[in-house]
């Protein structure tokens, strides 16, 4: 993988678990300087520890909390002067929820974290992004590309991320800041719906992939880091599916 990631400053939200943590570890191994953030202090500190501590930064940041965001971004910029890449990874993975059972609170929580959280972080960081080499990677899902029964609100948030990110790509492209999207399929993280629901649900997910297994957080991290790297320098507004071939079945 590209050596141009070395010493690049990368902000990750939702870095305290799953895909965000795996991406932080990969970037650390490649020599990036990380701003590791999550709303969960223990997860954030554990990722910081797994990445070897200094020179990285860690901070508690809830992407729905404007105060958290302005304080943390100010700390990050005062320490590293700029940001090269942002991985907007914080998100809520829900389990199956029929529309007859969902509440306004549930709708608001998914929208606030999965959509408005990405908007909040993007808006606060744009001015500090490195022009010419900078990029955003946002996280959609296969649920942002096709409907899934029992996941209407989650699908709405992940479809929204694709529209938002493609518009970011148009608007920020002329500044030399790229925006791309990863759309993971069934990834084995603690909050994946099937992992939460149990063995039967996991088997159904596995059976739906042509590779016959769930993906790992590291397999998503590999693509995220590629999208940040100079090898992806002509990619802007792309949506990369990482799903073991779900669409083929
Ligand atoms: P994960 O292991 O649960 O990690 C998500 C992290 O984000 C958690 O540490 C969580 O903290 C944090 N978070 C949640 N709300 C936050 C907020 N308001 N502010 C800051 N941090 C917040 O989940 P994951 O599977 O790695 O998911 C990462 C992203 O990938 C999400 O956007 C998810 O929708 C997407 N995705 C996942 C899959 C999959 O199969 N796993 C598939 C497609 C897309 P708490 O523990 O406190 O909630």
TrEMBL record:
The keyword Membrane does not apply. InterPro entries: NAD(P)-bd_dom_sf, Sc_DH/Rdtase_CS, SDR_fam. The keyword Ligase does not apply. It holds the Pfam family adh_short_C2. Transmembrane segments: none annotated. PROSITE patterns: ADH_SHORT (PS00061). Keywords: NADP, Oxidoreductase. One of its GO terms (biological process) is fatty acid biosynthetic process. Belongs to the short-chain dehydrogenases/reductases (SDR) family. This is NAD(P)-binding protein. The lineage of its organism: Eukaryota, Fungi, Dikarya, Ascomycota, Pezizomycotina.
